[in-house]
Design goal:
Layout: H1 28-35, E1 41-43, H2 54-64, H3 76-86, E2 91-95, H4 96-108, E3 114-119, H5 124-131, E4 135-140, H6 149-156, E5 161-165, H7 177-186, E6 190-194, E7 215-220, E8 232-236, H8 241-248, H9 256-266, H10 269-289, E9 301-305, H11 311-320, E10 323-327, E11 338-342, H12 346-358
Parallel strand pairs: 1-10, 3-4, 3-5, 5-6, 6-7
Antiparallel strand pairs: 2-8, 7-8, 9-11, 10-11
The protein binds pyridoxal-5'-phosphate.
Pyridoxal-5'-phosphate binds near residues 98 and 222.
């Protein structure tokens, strides 16, 4: 029998997984343990502070009683609900948009293929792409975080897949439909447009699906729809992708309870409208009253420049006051002077404002 060698099997692990990985927001549990605070403003993960729609809960509970059966492999009910909500588009679904991103990359990208990312942005594009052995090129945004289209296209023209996030995480920056079209028209590969926060801005990219066969629009039920814990994501896709996506996907990955909850959530658009109205109001309030500069945002969070302090210092100090925000120093290309603050409930934003303005 092989002797226990501690880390002796390290050499078996692929290079890309020996260090690094996804950086998670601090959890309320660690805060409660460390500082004995009970009422915590949870502003680190861009969730909807409202619980799921009652309709979503009702449908999830009903689905539980049939959980002895495998889910419908075509996720017919959810796809139908998506068509009722958005119109006659083609959809694929996954375990969160993260799951969709991973399956899309598995479908399209082979070792050595180029994947382009517009940084600073969501870290998972890069992590998922290196998992496929892709060669990842990062194209820096301008100082105001807008996309430098010329530089982006220079790298993206020869790419298999390019990722663009709008509204962008963690900056909140919105890239207009016409800029997206400029990119799409010049690309040979696929543009993955991440619309995780699109419900909180005024741009609607869906009509582009009718004009371009190389566009995928990623969506999530984790943010506006209050289902982060159930992990449901989906994407608008060109029709050629649907059968290959199914072949690449892990069988039955989206569980039947989550799929049922998503159907219920889509049947309650008033729930999303409430979240949207609250975000519009409180985002304006925070932008006006925060004594540090706030980047214009089309999302349910804002990026705050806390220089000359660092994001880490400020987020640690806010945590001792019961306010959890995200330090942004783990976002490549951003610098260490930023925090990202979700738009939560009114009391949470009042607490954030009074604590940050006191620093
Ligand atoms: C939250 C988030 C996602 C992932 O959403 P899930 O559906 O929860 O996996 C994708 N992209 C961006 C930019 C996000 O912020």
């Amino acid at each position: 029998m092989a002797e226990k060698r501690g880390c002796g099997f390290d050499s078996l692990v692929r290079d890309c997984y020996r260090s690094g990985g996804y950086v998670f927001a601090p959890s309320p549990a660690t805060l409660q343990d460390r500082h004995a605070i009970t009422r915590i403003a949870r502003l680190a993960s861009n969730e909807n502070p409202d619980p799921p729609s009652p309709r979503a809960i009702e449908m999830a509970v009903a689905a539980l009683s049939q959980a002895n059966r495998y889910p419908d492999e075509h996720v017919t009910g959810l796809v139908r609900a998506l068509r009722e909500y958005h119109g006659p588009y083609n959809f694929v679904v996954g375990v969160g948009m993260d799951g969709v991103i991973e399956t899309i990359l598995r479908t399209l990208v082979a070792a050595g293929d180029r994947v382009v990312v517009s940084t600073p942005t969501f870290s998972f594009y890069r992590l998922a792409a290196i998992g496929q052995g892709a060669e990842v090129r990062e194209v820096l945004r301008r100082k105001d975080f807008s996309v430098d289209i010329t530089r982006f296209l220079k790298e993206a023209q020869a790419a298999k897949v390019a990722f663009l996030c709008s509204p962008n995480n963690p900056t909140g920056t919105v890239t207009s439909c016409s800029e997206v079209e400029e990119i799409l028209g010049a690309m040979e590969g696929v543009l993955f447009l991440d619309n995780a926060y699109v419900e909180f801005c005024y741009e609607d990219y869906r009509p582009l699906m009718k004009k371009y066969d190389n566009l995928i629009i990623g969506r999530t039920m984790s943010k506006a729809f209050s289902l982060a814990g159930l992990r449901v994501g989906y994407a608008f896709v060109p029709d050629w992708i649907v059968p290959c996506y199914s072949r690449a996907a892990t069988p039955f990955s989206l569980n039947s309870v989550s799929a049922a909850a998503a159907i219920g959530a889509l049947q309650d658009p008033a729930h999303v409208a409430r979240a949207r109205d609250r975000v519009f109001g409180l985002r304006k309030m925070v932008t006006e009253r925060c004594r540090f500069p706030v980047t214009p945002s089309g999302a349910n969070f804002v990026l705050v420049d806390v220089s000359p302090r660092t994001g880490r210092e400020v987020s640690e100090e806010l945590a001792t006051k019961g306010v959890l925000v995200r330090s942004c120093e783990s976002f490549p290309g951003l610098g260490d002077q930023y925090i990202r603050v979700s738009i939560g409930e009114e009391w949470e934003m009042e607490l954030f404002i009074s604590e940050i303005n006191r620093l």
